[in-house]
From TrEMBL:
Species in which this protein is naturally found: Podilymbus podiceps (Pied-billed grebe)
Domain PH, residue spans: 222-307
PANTHER family associated with the record: FACIOGENITAL DYSPLASIA PROTEIN, FYVE, RHOGEF AND PH DOMAIN-CONTAINING PROTEIN 2
SUPFAM superfamilies in UniProt: DBL homology domain (DH-domain), PH domain-like
GO cellular component, one term: cytoskeleton
Protein's name in the database: FGD2 protein
Taxonomy of the source species: Eukaryota, Metazoa, Chordata, Craniata, Vertebrata
Amino acid sequence: MQEPEEKKIALELLETEQAYVNRLHLLDQIFYTELMKEAKNGKTVPEEVVKMIFSNISSIYQFHANFFLPELQKRMEDWSRNPRIGDVIQKLAPFLKMYGEYVKNFDKAVELITVWSEKSPPFQELIADIQKRKVCANLTLQHHMLEPVQRIPRYELLLKDYVRKLPPESPDRDDAEKALEMIFMVAKHSNAAITEMERLQNLWTVYQRLGLEDDIVDPSNELIKEGPIQKISTRNNGTSEKYLFLFNNMLLYCVPKVIQVGAEFQVHLRIDVDGMKVRELKDTQFPHTFLVSGKQRTLELQARYGE
């Protein structure tokens, strides 16, 4: 008799989980452990660097090796009596939130490996030595480190397939559908963590360009748009180059610094978005001109291309 389709997918989940746990073992028990041992001896890089590279890989490894894989194995051995995996995956799903930290740290970790490989030849040699071992299958540390990043999307695909192949009357239908929903939420959580990290990094770069002024640095701000602008001077009938940063709550009117040591711009004026008005002007001498008026003051500005 042919195996039911849903059982084939459940077996594929078990087989890929076994291979995944082997990969996590390599990352945590071999790479991390050996690099940490050498770091403690003061031979390669600071211990902090090794910890930053591997983030929370130890927790991820322990969870999969000691909990999820054994639970799956037990369930597949008992399939003829209890053909279901939905409830096991429901137990797994909340723990997958710990991937947020690993995924968020991934780009930084890869960058640290590159930087310290150049700075510390013993560090580079140790990684190269481990990569030569049979267990690494001719793949680099960075390649192995990508596996946890790809694991949650893999669960989502397998589970989608599993739910699709389940007979309507299957005792696992409700649990499997609920499990799929939970995995989907975790995948979203993981992506949201990356998006938030990128937003904060970009925001911090902008704050540095503005000289880290105390009343401006706030992690909750959203940068909407930035760019050069011409300030129209009625006194001398000319324009001067300025720069605008529009946030969700304020408009910063800045002057580019001639000597760019530290900050790139000096904030000349801050206009609160609350109560701010923008009005287009019809000026033949200065096209694309508009007025920005706030509680603080009014500016007459000219955009370059009417954007």
